[in-house]
Structures are given as structure tokens and as C-alpha cells.
Write a structure and sequence with these properties.
Layout lengths: L3 E10 L2 E11 L4 E5 L6 H9 L6 E6 L2 E2 L5 H6 L2 E4 L11 H8 L6 H14 L1 H4 L11 H13 L5 E5 L7 H16 L3 E5 L3 H7 L2 E6 L2 E6 L1 H5 L2 H7 L2
Length: 235
């Protein structure tokens, strides 16, 4: 049984069908990536998993249990955490307060302190900026805060939406190195990313979305060599 199963979901914005029968699986401790053009349905898929949007048909299961009609905060409580597109940190709070917000639903203080030490080891730059207002950080540093905040919740599944958007090439490389490290620590990741080459290079499995449908799937590195993927997404 896959940790996360998306089975033939149909998702609408009012009367516009954005996802037209999307199915995919994410095995425990895998990196699975979704690639596709703008408007293909990648972010909509993540919103459906996190409960922001509810499918009109189809099923989403976490560990075999349905997520149908469960509120987003309850889905987060089950261990599905999202690093949203555009980071969406609490800009007026300090870095430290942002990390605390990631653990707001937890009461295991000792474990929270251990996780904070772990994320600061993963992002040593944040240690130097704990008391700094998060909105004054660079884009790359804000991405670190958004990721660290999600990790403070000890996610079973980490949803990452365009983590490299707007970052310098050097910072993009750092982001993907960090994604690999997080995954090696045992975190399952569902990644949406416009940089198809980098996303496919680290993915255990990948799905290509076009106009709300999965049109191709396979092991990430194998899809790099696919002629259609090269033509459409790799230039």
C-alpha cells in the first residue's frame, strides 16, 4: 500500500474542471515529482491533498485512510504539511517565531527542541537569524524558513510547491541538495517544480500533467531521456 494514494480525482474551480481523473501514488520515503506547464493542475493536486480543495469525485488516501471531507488543519494534524508556492512565511514574525508556528499543534516540548536543533543544523544560516524579522530575509532564506517551519511539524508527507521559484541558480542547487537530505532523513516528499530537469534527476517517480490529466509517468531519471519530455520541458 502506498503512503499517499490519489485515485481518479476530479477537482473543480466553480464549473471549471481543473483535474480530470488524476491518479498517482507516493510510496513511503520516496520523492515523487509532478511536472507540467503552467495551468496543468500541479498546484491544484497539492491543494486537493492538503484539503484546501475537495474533489467532486475520486479518492485521496493517506496510509489507506480516506481524506474525504477532512478539514485542512486536521489533514495537517495527520502529518501532511505543505511548503506553499511563494513561501508564505509569517513576514512580521521572527525566524524563531515562524519555527514555533510550525510546531504549534505539538506538546512534546523535548522532541520539539530536538527538531529545532535538527532543522537549524540543516539550515545553519537560520541559526544566525533567529531573532530577525522573517520578511527582511532574502528569497532563499525565506524558502529555508518555509521548509524548516513545515519540518517542525514532523511531517509524514511533505508537499513542496515550486521551492526554487525566483531563486538564483546557486540557491536552486542548494534547495535541491536540501530536498535530497530531507528525504534521506526519512521524509516522504511530493514535489511540484518548474525546473523539470532537476526535479526528474532526484525523483524516484514522476508524473507529467497536461490540462488536468496524467499523460506520462515513470522513474524520474528515465523520463529525462523521454523524447516528449525533452521536447516539451527540457528544451
Amino acid at each position: 500500500m502506498a503512503l499517499l494514494e490519489i485515485d481518479d480525482i476530479h477537482v473543480f474551480y466553480d464549473n471549471i474542471e481543473a483535474l480530470k481523473g488524476v491518479s498517482l501514488e507516493v510510496e513511503e520515503k520516496q520523492i515523487v515529482t509532478l511536472i507540467g506547464a503552467n495551468g496543468a493542475g500541479k498546484t491544484t493536486t497539492l491543494k486537493a491533498v492538503s484539503g484546501i480543495l475537495h474533489p467532486r469525485a475520486g479518492e485521496i488516501r493517506l496510509g489507506g485512510e480516506s481524506l474525504a471531507h477532512i478539514a485542512p488543519h486536521d489533514i495537517a494534524g495527520l502529518g501532511v504539511m505543505q511548503v506553499p508556492e511563494g513561501r508564505r512565511i509569517f513576514a512580521r514574525l521572527t525566524v524563531d517565531e515562524n519555527l514555533q508556528m510550525g510546531a504549534f499543534a505539538r506538546n512534546d516540548r523535548r522532541a520539539v527542541a530536538e527538531d529545532k536543533a535538527r532543522v537549524l543544523e540543516l539550515f545553519p544560516r537560520l541559526r544566525e537569524r533567529l531573532k530577525q524579522v522573517a520578511g527582511t530575509l532574502s528569497g532563499g532564506e525565506q524558502q529555508m524558513v518555509a521548509t524548516a517551519r513545515a519540518l517542525m511539524a514532523r511531517p509524514r508527507v511533505l508537499l513542496m510547491d515550486e521551492p526554487s521559484m525566483g531563486l538564483s541558480p546557486v540557491m536552486v542547487e542548494h534547495v535541491f541538495e536540501t530536498i535530497r537530505t530531507i528525504n534521506k532523513q526519512g521524509v516522504t516528499i511530493l514535489l511540484v517544480e518548474q525546473n523539470a530537469l532537476l526535479a526528474l534527476s532526484i525523483a524516484d517517480r514522476a508524473y507529467v500533467l497536461e490540462s488536468g490529466r496524467v499523460v506520462l509517468s515513470g522513474r524520474g531519471p528515465e523520463l529525462i531521456d523521454d523524447e516528449k519530455v525533452q521536447r516539451a520541458y527540457l528544451g
